[in-house]
Design goal:
Structural class: alpha/beta
Largest sheet: 8 strands, parallel
Strand content: 15-25%
Oligomer: single chain
Helix content: 25-40%
Number of strands: 15
Distance between the termini: 27 Å
Number of helices: 16
Bound molecules: zinc ion
């Protein structure tokens, strides 16, 4: 039996608490242990306590001195588009010059350019780039990521992306939770209705029979997939045993939050334009909101979702990066913590809860990860600071010192 004792953390942020997502005032309760240690056996957390206590019980264990640093559970990023080919540097520069989305699309940019490059890439080429992205996430302290397909938009290309995620899971220490987002955009050579039929009749059955995804997502927005088209896809996915997450109310308040509530979805994501009725519907149906301030920031918008109202309404808020080449090119959860505090007026503690234990529950993994409690996987990150609030406070620099997955040190600076 392999054991590891880590001693002398200035703050061990445990997130210990009820075995469910945290709401209301609970979001600010981090369960911090000071001058703390942690004992790990066989990749799982055995004991969390004072440094003295752990030292006494560490006989036979490899000992690591944390030197007064802060330890957090590995971040759980519940919304990313991890697998794609190329980048969107030209779009980025055009947007900086003030061009509109329409002008950028006309110049050959937008999502379609990523779809073309992703279709042209082989599975091995996609895997190589995805590994680079996965490595970035680990270096930022993230040990679990949800990842969506959606840059293939044909049966074979969507399957290719999902297979890359499966290989990523086998070959990298980060855990990838796969989501099928075949309905990310309508391909240029077909109509939305015809494409919805393809997603329902051909893509979803293959994804389900090959067990390539745990969740189904749809980009529900005017001009992409309307509410009724989205409902058809989600209903079919649910029948096949997939759970639901949805891109809703990002650009317009189209009733997307209510749709996710009607369907009993696990999460409703984006919600920049969701109003109080939408918030009430999410509350009534126990749907977790996944807020993505990185995309608001990177698009140069100021229309952040109403995080405070959601917390006050009792929603189990989640924060995620929305990592993607077009609208949120960041794998950094500390950057998201900074945006949550400065732009959405969440406290540092609330933001950390939203990026760890609440995110873990939104991926059906709340029993295994998201907090540092006995029996859970030893997934955690060590940061070069003495107070957890520094993570959200200093921005634009990495404070990661080391990252552990199942008790193995996978990143060290
Ligand atoms: Zn997204």
């Amino acid at each position: 039996m392999k054991s590891l004792a880590l001693l002398h953390a200035s703050q061990l942020v445990t997130l210990a608490g009820p075995k469910r997502p945290r709401v209301g005032k609970e979001l600010a309760e981090l369960g911090i242990t000071r001058d703390a240690g942690i004992l790990i056996r066989d990749g799982k957390i055995d004991i969390v306590g004072s440094s003295d206590e752990i030292e006494k019980k560490s006989k036979g264990a490899e000992v690591v001195d944390l030197g007064g640093r802060v330890v957090l559970p590995g971040f759980v990023d519940a919304h990313t588009h991890l697998v794609f080919a190329g980048d969107r540097l030209d779009d980025f520069e055009r947007r900086a010059r003030g061009e509109t989305y329409e002008q950028i699309a006309k110049a050959g940019g937008g999502i379609w350019s990523t779809v073309e490059r992703t279709r042209a890439a082989t599975e091995d080429e996609l895997l190589k780039q995805a590994k680079k992205h996965a490595d970035w996430f680990l270096k930022c302290g993230t040990t679990t990521v949800e990842a969506k397909s959606g840059y293939g938009l044909t049966l074979e290309d969507e399957l290719k992306i999902l297979r890359v995620m499966r290989r990523l899971n086998d070959e990298m220490p980060i855990e990838v939770v796969p989501t099928f987002l075949g309905a990310h955009a309508v391909p240029r050579d077909t109509s939305a209705d015809k494409y919805v039929d393809l997603v329902i009749n051909e893509m979803l059955p293959r994804v389900a029979s090959e067990k390539l995804a745990e969740f189904c997502d749809v980009f529900c927005e005017r001009g992409y997939f309307e509410v009724e088209q989205s409902r058809k896809i989600f209903t079919a996915a649910k029948k096949l045993g997939l759970k639901l997450r949805g891109h809703v109310d990002q650009l317009t308040n189209s009733g997307g939050a209510k749709l996710m509530a009607d369907l009993g979805a696990t999460t409703a994501d984006h919600l920049e334009k969701t109003d109080e009725q939408g918030i009430a519907a999410l509350k009534a149906a126990n749907v977790q909101p996944v807020l993505l301030p990185g995309s608001v920031y990177a698009l140069g918008s100021t229309s952040y979702p109403r995080a405070r109202e959601m917390i006050e309404a009792g929603l189990a808020v989640v924060l995620a990066t929305d990592f993607n080449p077009g609208s949120s090119p960041t794998p950094s959860m500390p950057m998201i913590l900074s945006l949550a505090c400065t732009q959405m007026k969440m406290s540092p503690a609330e933001a950390i809860t939203a990026a760890t234990i609440n995110a873990a529950y939104s991926l059906n993994r709340g029993e295994k990860i998201g907090s540092l409690e006995p029996g859970k996987l030893a997934n955690f990150s060590v940061f070069d600071c003495e107070d957890y609030r520094e993570l959200a406070y200093w921005f634009g620099i990495s404070q990661t010192h080391a990252v552990y997955v199942r008790g193995e040190n996978v990143v060290r600076f």
